[in-house]
């Protein structure tokens, strides 16, 4: 099947039901996208599919063939993504960092869709788990990125 | 001997705590500073060349004895060395030091844990930086023909009286060839620029852009990927894969392996291995395990067993005559408290990559908190000498105690076996479900309290802590001398005239482990909850009663007042905010050399507890990075709220009923309170910062819930109680 990831089209030979996560990590060698739970609970595997934050661990690759898939590796190629990363750095959000690829992409999807999100918008969009508990900093960084 | 307890108790003279037979074989992390590098004269000069590489571009590669897992230790090491070296922390690259040599210890007791990293290596790191700076000055002196005493430094530069400036990069190579001086004076703390500053952490950008690489991301040429399924109950062994030929024929599958208590599938890709494993029909039979799980084990029944247990109670702390005081008291209250098993739930699932080399050596890439111990076990498993093992420790995608050496909780022995069996490098990843199944959870704990209550508060306290601590399990600490079994009930600062605290040892059938703040994670909840019960029985305000009990302990008294002020003044409530009743609770703890006091504010939302605010005042004695401390208190608070509200690993029929975050919730973003931190630097001996923010959170919440609802919760988590 053909997958368009970070603007490049790749032909990959995998079973239809292979989760997008494992295609990205193992076939394309992009390891910024993380495996956390495998059942769409934690969001560490979040990627953007046509701009929408998507949990790649339960998304069969075949379902998103032909769609525009973006991973953390190219997040800074958009103005919004760049702002989000800068806000993450300035607010010193990450601790262990493992969930943060997903967090950054979830924030990027939110702010691309809603430039000035309400608290409810943030609560609705930012549902990824962080075991280090960086949630206060995540919220501050999303706020800051939205005001930039 | 638990490293945490040792380091915690006496960072400069741990041997006096040695409760292990043969403690002479143990060398402690704090002996690390004085071990010379290979080739150096035996002296007390710090091993500059081993720890630091001064590069021609003026940057430094620093080898940290401690692994980075989000706690900011790489940044702290750069700050401390940079302070004395006179080089800004941003010019440091920090990586984990390899096992052994000047970094490791006889017997392998270097651990990243016990909130001990910074405090136990603070002086060493300062001396490393100071010695290296002296060497740079010496090299400049030789180059310029100017006496060293006439030279000084500015950040990254040696400066001569005539204004000549030589960058550290130009001097690096000459400086590193010089002998390491001893007795270099250290900077006056009054002049610190980097230590005590909120220095940004050096890995934040990489972690915000997906560039940070963890054990699960390791790639080795020609490697295969493996998935594993463990026996549902520890002690069972695989009997057969009844559809073996079908599994072996699946796409990408290399081979199927029967391991000790598990079946592994090795394939070209992890997903192929995982998919094949899911299709495997495995039958299990009774096998061997060091700690087999009883087939009828239930956590609920185990709790009742602890509650009813009788036997010898080994004294841990005593003063006065608690028994007599209780016998003669007019008012005696008693209560039993318990806390459940909890998993670590670090977001990076465990993995290990093993490669057996043609020359008989082994390379291992994995997460760990104790490199020398891992090397020792790896050598045993591979049947080679420890010197033939190269350990490549990876930064940790969360740890919280998950990556110590636990009998059945680490993937690397299996990865080694698979690499040997296949003749290829193998990366083994445990799925989240396997992590839940074989994690070494925080033990379920229970304590029985009795207090004699007078008009001013408790006049006597008797506590029996029932069960087993991880330091008993892994380091043979006997009952009564296992701090992990009682800390948080023992070691409290309150003045009570008659106190008797003891441990009734009862083995835990589960493979138990260290969990962030260890015994404190549950015992302070129990103690501080019961303390509020005492206040209630005496008709006293819980905050005022604590203040009075701390009158002769100024450090604690001050801290409690400071958290009261931080929260806008103590007000237990209930009071209404936006038409909803809220109340507050308070608690204190003395974990890992630091002191903490917390006030929590809660309300009820459809019968469940909502935590709005957590105010914590923390006194770590002396600080290195206030921004890191604030972040660590935030993080510890989140884990504390999480375990108080929702976490509980339930066992039925010898198996955990939850295998992932669907059936075992952890704190969600919308459940996170606003966390307010005040750092109080009392000047006492430096304490830890990674764990001390946790223990107070649970009791402050539970005390607030009691204030709000009149209901005293003595068993966590709150989610199993209906407040509707």
UniProtKB/TrEMBL annotation, chain A:
Pfam families, alphabetized: Fer2, Fer2_2
The protein's Enzyme Commission number: 1.3.99.16
Stored CDD domains: fer2
Keyword Isomerase: no
Gene Ontology MF terms: 2 iron, 2 sulfur cluster binding; isoquinoline 1-oxidoreductase activity; metal ion binding
Domain 2Fe-2S ferredoxin-type: start-end pairs: 1-75
UniProt keyword terms in alphabetical order: 2Fe-2S, Iron, Iron-sulfur, Metal-binding, Oxidoreductase
Signal sequence coordinates: none
InterPro entries: 2Fe-2S-bd, 2Fe-2S-bd_dom_sf, 2Fe-2S_ferredoxin-like_sf, 2Fe-2S_ferredoxin-type, 2Fe2S_fd_BS, Beta-grasp_dom_sf, Diverse_Oxidoreductases
SUPFAM superfamilies according to UniProt: 2Fe-2S ferredoxin-like, CO dehydrogenase ISP C-domain like
Full protein name: Isoquinoline 1-oxidoreductase subunit alpha
Source species of the chain: Tropicibacter naphthalenivorans
Organism taxonomic ancestry: Bacteria, Pseudomonadati, Pseudomonadota, Alphaproteobacteria, Rhodobacterales
TrEMBL record, chain B:
UniProt keyword annotation of Oxidoreductase present: yes
SMART domains per UniProt: Ald_Xan_dh_C
Keyword Protein biosynthesis: no
InterPro entries: Ald_Oxase/Xan_DH_a/b, Ald_Oxase/Xan_DH_a/b_sf, AldOxase/xan_DH_MoCoBD1, AldOxase/xan_DH_MoCoBD2, AldOxase/xan_DH_Mopterin-bd_sf, N-heterocyclic_Hydroxylase, OxRdtase_Mopterin-bd_su_IorB, TAT_signal
Ranges of residues in domain Aldehyde oxidase/xanthine dehydrogenase a/b hammerhead: 209-288
Matching Pfam families: MoCoBD_1, MoCoBD_2
EC number: 1.3.99.16
Keywords: Oxidoreductase
Single GO MF descriptor: isoquinoline 1-oxidoreductase activity
Domain of life, per lineage: Bacteria
Matching PROSITE patterns: TAT (PS51318)
Classification via PANTHER family: ALDEHYDE DEHYDROGENASE (PTHR47495)
Protein name: Isoquinoline 1-oxidoreductase subunit beta
Organism listed in the record: Tropicibacter naphthalenivorans
Protein's gene: iorB_2
């Amino acid at each position: 099947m053909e997958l368009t990831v970070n603007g490049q089209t790749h032909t990959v030979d995998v079973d239809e039901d292979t989760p997008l996560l494992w295609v990205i990590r193992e076939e394309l060698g992009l390891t910024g996208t993380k495996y956390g739970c495998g059942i769409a609970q934690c969001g560490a595997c979040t990627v953007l599919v046509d701009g929408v934050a998507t949990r790649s661990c339960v998304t069969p690759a075949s379902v998103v063939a032909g769609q525009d898939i973006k991973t953390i590796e190219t997040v800074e190629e958009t103005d919004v993504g760049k702002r989000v990363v800068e806000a993450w750095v300035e607010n010193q959000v990450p601790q262990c960092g493992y969930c943060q690829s997903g967090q950054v992409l979830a924030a990027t999807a939110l702010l691309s869709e809603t430039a000035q999100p309400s608290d409810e918008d943030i609560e609705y969009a930012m549902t990824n788990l962080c075991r280090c508990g960086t949630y206060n900093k995540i919220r501050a960084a999303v706020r800051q990125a939205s005001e930039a | 001997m638990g490293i945490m307890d040792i380091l915690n108790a006496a960072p400069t003279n741990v041997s006096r705590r040695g409760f292990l037979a043969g403690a002479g074989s143990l060398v402690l992390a704090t002996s690390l500073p004085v071990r010379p590098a290979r080739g150096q004269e035996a002296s007390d000069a710090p091993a500059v060349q081993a720890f630091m590489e001064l590069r021609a571009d003026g940057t430094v590669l620093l080898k940290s004895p401690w692994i980075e897992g989000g706690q900011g230790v790489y940044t702290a090491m750069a700050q401390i060395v940079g302070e004395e070296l006179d080089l800004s922390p941003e010019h440091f690259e920090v990586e984990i030091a390899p096992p052994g040599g000047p970094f490791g210890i006889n017997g392998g007791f270097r651990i990243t844990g016990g909130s001990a990293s910074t405090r136990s290596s603070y002086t060493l790191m300062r001396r490393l930086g100071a010695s290296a700076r002296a060497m740079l000055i010496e090299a400049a002196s030789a180059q310029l023909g100017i006496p060293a005493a006439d030279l000084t430094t500015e950040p990254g530069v040696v400066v001569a009286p005539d204004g000549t400036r030589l960058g550290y990069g130009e001097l690096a190579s000459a400086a590193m060839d010089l002998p390491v001086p001893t007795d270099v004076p250290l900077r006056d703390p009054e002049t610190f620029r980097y230590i005590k500053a909120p220095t940004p952490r050096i890995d934040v950008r990489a972690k915000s852009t997906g560039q940070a690489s963890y054990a699960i991301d390791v790639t080795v040429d020609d490697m295969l990927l493996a998935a594993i399924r463990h026996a549902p109950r520890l002690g069972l062994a695989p009997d057969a894969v009844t559809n073996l030929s079908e599994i072996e024929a699946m796409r990408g599958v290399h081979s199927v392996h029967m391991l000790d208590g598990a079946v592994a599938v090795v394939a070209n890709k992890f997903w192929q291995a995982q998919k094949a494993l899911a299709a495997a029909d495995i039958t299990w039979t009774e096998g061997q395990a060091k700690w087999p799980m009883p087939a009828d084990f239930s956590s609920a029944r185990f709790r009742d067993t602890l509650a009813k247990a009788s036997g010898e109670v080994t004294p841990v702390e005593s003063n006065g005559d608690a028994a007599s005081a209780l016998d003669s008291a007019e008012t005696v209250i008693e209560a039993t408290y318990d806390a459940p098993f909890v998993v670590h739930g670090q977001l990076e699932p465990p993995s290990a990559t093993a490669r057996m080399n043609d020359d008989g050596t082994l390379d291992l890439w994995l997460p760990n908190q104790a490199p020398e111990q891992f090397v020792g076990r790896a050598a045993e498993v591979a049947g080679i000498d420890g010197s033939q093992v190269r350990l490549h420790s990876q930064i940790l995608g969360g740890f919280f105690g998950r990556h110590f050496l636990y009998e059945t909780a680490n993937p690397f022995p299996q990865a080694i076996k698979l690499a040997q069996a296949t003749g290829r490098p193998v990366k083994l990843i445990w799925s989240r479900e396997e992590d839940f199944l074989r994690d070494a959870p925080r033990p379920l704990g229970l304590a029985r309290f009795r207090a004699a209550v007078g008009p001013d508060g408790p006049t006597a306290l008797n506590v029996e802590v029932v069960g087993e601590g991880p330091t008993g399990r892994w380091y043979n600490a006997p009952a009564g001398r296992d701090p992990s079994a009682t800390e948080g009930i023992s070691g409290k600062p309150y003045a009570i005239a008659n106190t008797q605290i003891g441990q009734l040892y009862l083995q835990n059938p589960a493979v138990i482990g260290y969990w962030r703040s260890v015994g404190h994670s549950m015992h302070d909840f129990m103690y501080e909850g019961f303390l509020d019960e005492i206040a209630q029985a005496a008709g006293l305000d819980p905050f005022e009663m604590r203040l009075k009990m701390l009158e002769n302990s100024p450090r604690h008294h001050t801290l409690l007042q400071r958290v009261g002020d931080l929260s806008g003044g103590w007000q237990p409530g209930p009071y209404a905010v936006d038409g909803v009743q809220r109340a507050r609770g308070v608690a204190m703890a003395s974990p890992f050399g630091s002191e903490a006091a917390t006030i929590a504010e809660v309300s009820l939302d459809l019968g469940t507890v909502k935590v709005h605010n957590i105010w914590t005042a923390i006194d770590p004695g002396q600080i290195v990075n206030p921004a890191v401390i604030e972040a660590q208190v935030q993080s510890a608070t989140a884990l504390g709220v999480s375990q108080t509200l929702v976490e509980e690993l339930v066992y039925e029929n010898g198996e955990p009923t939850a295998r992932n975050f669907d059936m075992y919730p952890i704190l969600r973003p919308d459940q996170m309170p606003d966390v307010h931190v005040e750092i109080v630097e009392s000047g006492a001996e430096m304490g830890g910062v990674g764990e001390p923010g946790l223990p107070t959170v649970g009791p402050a919440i539970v005390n607030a819930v009691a204030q709000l609802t009149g209901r005293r919760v003595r068993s966590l988590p709150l989610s199993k109680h209906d407040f509707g």
